[in-house]
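Quick one, probably user error.
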């Protein structure tokens, strides 16, 4: 199974490189992550207006709607992430707006589940020229750049390394139970961190992985957005 997983991802990365991509579109990045067992959102990629209603119904309202293109790595800054769409008219209007912005660009429109959770984390991978692939864990959402609360470890990670990273961020109490919100599932977070390191070790084509936000839906971490940068 491990060899199949590595081959599947290597093929996807090679195809993206052959198309001249420097990034994976979000739906492509999620395929890589899912192959390594990381928990991603339920989502469907659509390329026509006629597919919006059935896809949104299959995902389940409310939904989020996003551009998914390798040419647009940072969608929020361009107003191409629309959240909390409660019904088909809202989804269709959002599709029209995003599809217009995507004109003549590769990719499609991603219809994604809305993940309910008030705590956001950031996980990732950077390829250091001296140390090789290094895994990152920190506070997510809008506070990632503002507070810079993140720690790094060189891959491969052992289980103890992953748990140590969670204890080393200044905001570590965000992982604890508070006011009826359960403690974060640290076991799943540790597995995610180790898997990110393994992706970096298995695939030299991957320069960077940015998972932000990873939303804690109760205790369960879910990757709501993903960017993979190619070397």
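Nope, works fine. Designed sequence:
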């Amino acid at each position: 199974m491990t060899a199949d997983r590595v081959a599947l991802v290597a093929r996807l990365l090679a195809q993206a490189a052959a198309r001249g991509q420097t990034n994976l579109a979000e739906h492509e990045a999620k395929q890589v992550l899912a192959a390594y067992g990381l928990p991603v959102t339920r989502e469907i990629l659509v390329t026509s207006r006629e597919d919006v209603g059935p896809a949104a119904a299959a995902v389940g309202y409310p939904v989020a709607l996003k551009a998914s293109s390798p040419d647009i790595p940072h969608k929020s800054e361009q107003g191409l992430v629309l959240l909390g769409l409660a019904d088909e008219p809202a989804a269709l209007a959002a599709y029209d707006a995003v599809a217009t912005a995507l004109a003549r660009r590769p990719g499609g429109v991603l219809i994604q589940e809305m993940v309910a959770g008030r705590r956001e984390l950031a996980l990732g991978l950077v390829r250091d020229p001296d140390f090789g692939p290094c895994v990152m864990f920190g506070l997510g959402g809008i506070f990632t750049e503002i507070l810079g609360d993140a720690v790094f470890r060189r891959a491969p990670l052992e289980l103890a390394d992953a748990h140590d990273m969670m204890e080393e961020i200044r905001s570590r109490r965000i992982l604890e139970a508070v006011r009826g919100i359960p403690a974060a599932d640290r076991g799943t977070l540790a597995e995610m961190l180790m898997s990110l390191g393994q992706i970096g070790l298995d695939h030299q084509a991957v320069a960077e992985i940015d998972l932000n936000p990873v939303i804690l839906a109760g205790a369960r971490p879910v990757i709501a957005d993903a960017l993979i940068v190619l070397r």
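The helical segments are 2-18, 26-35, 52-59, 88-101, 143-147, 159-168, 186-202.
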